[in-house]
Every structure is written in structure tokens, then in C-alpha cells.
Amino acid sequence: MSDAIDVDRWREELESKRAEKDEFFADHPQSPIPPEEREDFEGLEYFDPDPTYRVTATATVHDDPEVVLMDTTAGREMRYLRVATLAFELDREDDALEDGTFELAAYRQESPNEQPLFVPFRDKTTGQQSYQGGRYMELEPERDLEDGDELVVDFNLAYSPFCAYSETFDCPLPPEENWLDVTVPAGERDE
């Protein structure tokens, strides 16, 4: 973790967000948990909070974003724009690249730019300890990104898409460029 944070406060905020999400999944009419299963729902499963997986990434902005077609769980394709590439380091000596640097592409749909950056990814937990279709993160920079800007990428906030809980949802699958060859035991996991 490259920037100093109050780890106790960070952990408290993370646990609070997780409790809020569990409440939404258990009770809200728009929960992805099928209504007949909500009574037995006891909360989502998570990896233990680990500040090691809260990293600072350096952005490379794509001024003329390339269209990326993402396959979906229902066999369709969705159009996204690759708006930035985020480079970061993970302290994972066991399975990091030679220099320990990894990259993830950040996308937006072709609609207005006000939406957060969408960062779908797979890692070595995918299909084992986490959802087989990959996980998502959303990043909300405080302003339009410029080359060299740094932003926090907290894998502890990685979540499974709604299609992990019900087949009625159609979710984009992370493109191959966002398949990390590393284990990221942070965020939501399978039971």
C-alpha cells in the first residue's frame, strides 16, 4: 500500500459498506437474490479486509478510446470504450510479473462521461474462490483523468456482478486484457 491511511478507519468503513450491501441484498425489491431465497440469505461472503490490496495506480489516458466488445453471460456483446490503462504494483513475490507491475484497462459505455470507470477483471481466484464470470470494480476519479494521474484501486471493494446470484441478469465478462495472472484474495468471494 503506497499511501498512508488510517487502517482501522478504512477497515471500519469497509465493514460498514459490506453490512449495507448485505441489507440491500436481503430486503430490497431490486436485490439480485431471488425472492424465494431471501429469507435464507445470511450475507455475502468476503475475503478478509487486507490493505495490501489497496494500491495506487498510475493512469494512461486514451484520448481516442478504442471500442471493446465484451461478451456477456447471456451470449450477447456490449460495447465499451477503453478510456484508460491503470498500472499498479502488488506485493506478491510468489506470482508477480518480473517487476511486480500489473495493468488493468478501465472502460466506460459509449453514453455520457459522467459514469464511473468500469474495471472488470479476472484473477487466479476466478472460478475457484470467486465468481466464475469475474469481478468488477468501479472507480470515481475526482476529475477527468490525465496521463500520469494517480488513483486508488481498492480490490477489497471488488464485487461479483448480479448474474452471480440470478440468471435473469446479463453481465459483461472481463475481456482477456483484464485477466490478471495473480491471486487477488480481496473483495467478494464465493461461498
UniProtKB/TrEMBL annotation:
Family matches, as InterPro entries: DUF1684 (IPR012467)
Q: Where is this region: Disordered?
A: 18-40, 113-132
Its source organism is Natrinema ejinorense
Source domain of life: Archaea
Q: What is this protein called?
A: DUF1684 domain-containing protein
